Amino acid sequence: MTDSDMNLVEEENKDEKIAKPSRPPPKPLIETAIGQYTILSVVLGGVAVLTVIAITADECRKCFDKAANLQPTEKIQKAFWAYGKDVDGGHLQEVFTILHRLGYKKEDNYSEWDLLWAHDYPFTELRSQLDNLKPHQKVNHLPGIGHITNKVTLATSGLNYIPPAFKLPVDKDKLLEYSQKFPNVSFVQKNNDHREVKIKKIFDVNLDQEGTFLQEYIDKPLLVSGHRFDIGIYTIITSVEPLRVYIYNGEGLLRFCPEKYYPFDPENLDKYVVGDDYLPVWKIPALDYYYNELGFGMRDSLNAYLKSLGKDPSTIWKQIEDAIRTVVIAKEAAIVDVLQRYTSKRNFFELMRFDFLVDENLKIYLLEANMSPNLSSAHFPPNRLLYQQVLYNVLGLVGVGESIYRSSLAVRSKSEEDMVVSDKTLAVYPNVCNSHTCRSNCMSLECQLCKTCITTETRQYLVTAVKEHLHKADCKRIFPPPMSQEEAANGIDVDQYSPENQLQYKWFQGKCILDASWC
Which sequence ranges are marked TM in the entry (predicted)? Predict the structure, then answer.
């Protein structure tokens, strides 16, 4: 090997030594073991996560596959049916709308219905079907309600707040005597259909005419922007014997005569008769800003206007409540006489509208009470909200629009009933019920309300009264009459009422003592 070859070998060996890294010194045994364990843990954790994801995905796939294969089932709904002439003609549209929103389905009368909504009086043609109703079925009229809503019967009843009226020809002599006593009085001639209403003097009337009556005309009405108007108050009777009456307190219906009252002309009916084409509140200048710009309702707009004149509108509403209460109490016995022909008194309720006139001294006069008041907004679309709110509140009050889901109004289980109303809710007069008197017998009114004495029927209608209290929303109880806690504690005279109404009034009095919201 030449010297040059030797030099080349030495250079290659030198390069090889440079290219090979030197081996690090060996790690301690414990450190090596920990590193290997960490790597193994990470690997095993990853495998576990992937396994869970795979299992979950498979289960979800199975769920979706199962759901895809399910057959749709028909939802069971509460049912109502409607009775009257041309019920699908549109005048009940707001009724249908609210019932659908409350989960009801429109059915025929052969179905297992929960509610009958009758626009016409149903107890003549449907008597056989309504004679033996199931406990949960509701009907929106009371048998015998005509004792209030019949215009002749109401006008000639002689009750407070109703202008004197005389039925022809039977009251002919009384009419002549009254006209001689008050020679300047004018009369409005009416019939039960409220048609051909017109002011007349006594000598212009055929006093032997059948089917009509004369009523004293109120000639100095309260005017707003020069227009005569009436006030409609929606009223609900939820029970008779005992009697419970509410009004819808959220709003009143104001209707104005199309033409200004002065200069007065008895031949121009548009000056003093509120007809179908009345002037709505949103076109009355004195109420326009309150109603259209500030967003107040009809009632509150009228209140604000009267206050701006220095008048107290509460005078009107107190009289109205008393007038409604007076009429219904006076007619309750006649309604009960008709109702006794039916198996149960607890299936029926009534929504009416009482119409009032106010004179220039804020004295009110009851003009009529309307069964099946108009609830159609077809003629005046802005009234839709009013009608829907009335219906929603009334149906909630009577238990048709309840908040607990059920496929029928049929009786709940005891557990469900107790959840809403239990014996604790009904309990009143704790000290009286613990007295020797009530422990010994059940003779006194207060003792009859104790758990140890209360009858099944009394308990049943008090349970319903509690439900109404819980669900009354914008409805206000006017009978039993409102009271203060002080009045309730001092005792209230109930002797003028029937035994059933006395007992119920005493119960409300006891609830008021315990809780002011019941007063």
Answer: 34-57
Question: Is the preceding peptide bond at 143 cis, omega within 30 degrees of 0?
Answer: no
Confidence of residue 192 (pLDDT cuts 50, 70, 90): low
Q: What angle do CA 17, 20, 24 make, to 5 degrees?
A: 115
The ranges assigned to domains in the chain are 414-518
Alpha carbon 424 to its chain centroid, in Å, reads 26
Backbone angles phi, psi at 82, to 5 degrees: -110, 140
C-alpha dist (Å) from residue 447 to 195, 385, 424, 425: 53, 46, 16, 17
| DSSP conformational letter for 24 | P
The encoded tokens of residue 289 equal 């800003």
Q: How far is CA 13 from CA 4, 23, 24, 135, in A?
A: 15, 18, 22, 112
The residue count for the chain: 519
Close Cβ partners of 112 (under 8 Å, ≥ 6 residues apart):
79, 408
Q: Which residues contact 189 (CB under 8 A, 6 or more apart)?
A: 196, 197, 198, 200, 205, 212, 213, 214
Q: Per-residue pLDDT tens for 366-418?
A: 999 999 999 999 999 999 999 999 999 999 999 998 777 667 777 667 788 88
